[in-house]
Amino acid sequence: MFAVLVAAARGATVTSPKEHFGFSIGDDRQLATWTQTEAYFKKLAAESDRLKLVEIGTTEEGRQQYMLVCSSPDNLKNVERYRLAAQKLARAEGLTDDEARALAKDSKPIVWIDGGLHATETVGTHQLIETVWLFASRNDPETLRILDNVVILFG
User: Fold this and answer.
1) How far is CA 11 from CA 49, 111, 112, 146, in A?
2) Rg of the chain over CA atoms, in angstroms?
3) How is residue 108 annotated by DSSP?
4) Between β-strands 64-70 and 151-154, what pairing exists: parallel, antiparallel or unpaired?
5) Cα–Cα distance between 126 and 14 in angstroms, integer?
6) Rounded Cα gap, residues 52 and 37, in angstroms
7) 97-105 and 79-91 helices, crossing angle to 10°
8) Stated pTM of the model
9) How far apart are CA 48 and CA 81, in angstroms?
10) Lowest mean pLDDT: which of 10-24, 36-50, 54-68?
């Protein structure tokens, strides 16, 4: 019974792509616009304790560009610490081997999943929508293990 309560608490119900867009991702002749996608990502970030929406700059067209940070709620509380550790490890300036090992042991891997760049590349954005929703909504052991052990950046 306790495991069921923990699983229920970890993944609150979030809006599915079909509920938001009116079609399932991958349906024939159906494409989400950037405006719809932006609204969906904002909605998911508000609904899920596994997501944090971060502004990362402005597009060439002057639109705000976002990234979704996805992980367990505990990891999201420490995400700045993990970012700094990853930065130190990547640069490796002035780190001893022992210091690098300690940083790696006390941190989380950070993975970037990109949604594409060009307007004609629709699959990348659509896979991003579906993948973000799956990580925000699923409570199976594998999804929860990934969320506990990795920080994913969706952009």
Assistant:
1) 8, 21, 22, 14
2) 17
3) -
4) antiparallel
5) 17
6) 15
7) 150
8) 0.85
9) 21
10) 10-24
